[in-house]
Structures are given as C-alpha cells and as structure tokens.
Specification:
The chain is elongated. The chain has one domain. The relative contact order is 0.14. By secondary structure, it is mainly α.
Length: about 60
C-alpha cells in the first residue's frame, strides 16, 4: 500500500515538473512572438503560478 502511494506521488511529481517545463517553453515562444497580451499567454501565466506553487510546496516539505 505504501509503495503504491509512493509510486503515485513520484508519477504526479514528474508530471508536475514536465507540465511546468512545458508551460515555460510555451510562454517563452509567445514572448518571442510579442504575444504577451494574448489570452493564451495570460492563461499560461496563471497555470505557471499554480504549478510553481505546487513545486514550492514539495520543496518546503522536503519532497524534492
């Protein structure tokens, strides 16, 4: 049971890191295209902050 939870946590943590990296990449592309005022960029910014907060919590609790 504990191993299943650990595996689930590891999978979630990896997914969060991948998604965060993808968001940053997409934001950089839009920024290079001078599209920082678009709805898509603003949505990505909101998602970036959410994922950044999640990663900060993982770090705060020593889970990274």
């Amino acid at each position: 049971m504990a191993w299943n939870r650990l595996e689930a946590f590891e999978a979630m943590f990896a997914a969060v890191r991948r998604e965060y990296a993808d968001i940053l990449s997409r934001m950089e592309k839009l920024k290079a295209e001078k599209k920082v005022k678009t709805v898509t960029y603003q949505q990505l910014l909101a998602r970036k902050l959410t994922y950044q907060n999640m990663l900060s919590l993982y770090q705060l609790y020593g889970l990274t």
